[in-house]
Amino acid sequence: MHLVKDISTFADQEKWYINVIVDVPKWSNNKYEYDHKLWCFKLDRVIHSSMYYPVDYGFIPQTLSLDWDPCDVCLLVTNPTFPWCLIKARPIGILYTTDNAWDDPKVIAVPTSDVDPRWDEIHTIDDLGHHMKEELFTIFKQIKFLEHEKYDKVEVREFWSFEDAEKEVLTSMHRYQESLEDE
Q1: Tell me: the pLDDT tens digits for 48-77?
Q2: Domains along the chain?
Q3: Which of 77, 99, 118, 166 lies at a 20 to 30 A Cα distance from 92?
């Protein structure tokens, strides 16, 4: 099974529940990535500083961002999961970032109620509170800091609403479909 091509974007499109495939579990400083050609996960690198991901970090299947990877997701979870884990989630907002001149937005999401009801009160990016937003902002601002040769420009701009996340997912889905036509 190819995790990008064979799993749908939505777990339930009417409710706007997306499928998220986890790359990096919460509290890890190993940066795993799905290899689209080999159909497996690989260790891309170990974060060069003493930081870790405060969320499960993954992607939405059948999407394509401007950096030519599937749409990134920061999934707030109670406990870390594992690479390959499929989680039904609902977007609450988006964090816009850029690295090396490529836009690299991160959809912010929480598990659906049937997966983990602890996140039921979180509906918008503002429901996260100041500290969690600062953690997310900081991790993406600093995570590549010691990788000067590879990342000479990293910019973390701002958080936007669910509606902006929705637009990004739909645009990424369209871009993915267009890429299939070009093959």
Answers
A1: 888 999 999 999 999 999 888 999 999 999
A2: 10-182 (3.90.80.10)
A3: 99
